[in-house]
Amino acid sequence: MHGLEEIKDLIVPALIARLAAESLDPLLNLLHKYTDQPELILETLAQTSRLRTSIKNAIEEMKIQQGKNPTDGRSWQHRITRTFQKINIKEVEEAVNQAPTKQTEIAKSYGLLGNILIIDQKEKPAWHKVHTEGIVSINPKKKPYHKGHRFYTAIIAGKVSVISMYMPDLNSIDKGLVVRQALIGAKKLTEVKRVLVDAGFFEKSVYSAISLEGSDVLGAVPKNSKVIRLIMSHHRALSHHYEPGIYLYRLRDTEFHLLLVPRPKEKRKISSDHNVRRIVKNYISLAVF
Question: For residue 218, what are the β-bridge partners?
Answer without folding.
Answer: 196, 288
